User: Fold this.
Amino acid sequence: MKKVNAFWREKTLTEMTAEEWESLCDGCAKCCLQKLEDEDTDEVYYTNLVCRYLDAQCRCKVYNTRHEKVPSCIWLKPADVSAFKWLPDTCAYRLVYEGKDLPSWHPLRTGKPMSTVKKGKSVLHWPVIPDDAVPEDEWEDHIIFKAE
Ligand code: SF4
Ligand code: SF4
Assistant:
């Protein structure tokens, strides 16, 4: 059996190499769901509307130009993780920031790039709708939960 280099248990987010940092993403695409912020309370709500550029394998169709195509697409950097309080509680960056281990289905633990999707942990297992299929003034009707 191949020994896993569990760097995420040994290093902080800021100590990781660029390659380790990239590999930490589990590919769940929960951060690709549209979110709405209550301006009075700063609370953030997830909708079931997913970015139009997510493909059927849960991958970004425009990865290299995503920040040009979708200005609101997050560009997560080590110093920013604490600021993104809305990240889902399964997000690997949030877990490591909070000193927690990665779940058993994470690709870094399974050695299989698609294990998040295969274990039903991605948005592909939710009743999502592409965001360009719904007018923006109706997005509020698609709220599914509040970010914690
Ligand atoms: S929520 Fe976190 S782990 Fe999931 S795709 Fe986004 S950055 Fe990656
Ligand atoms: S551009 Fe790609 S990474 Fe960004 S929100 Fe859309 S699908 Fe997700």
Remarks:
- Residues 25-31, 76, 87-88, 91-93 surround iron/sulfur cluster (ligand 1) (CB under 6 Å).
- The mean pLDDT is 94.
- The radius of gyration is 16 Å.
- Residues 10-146 form one domain.
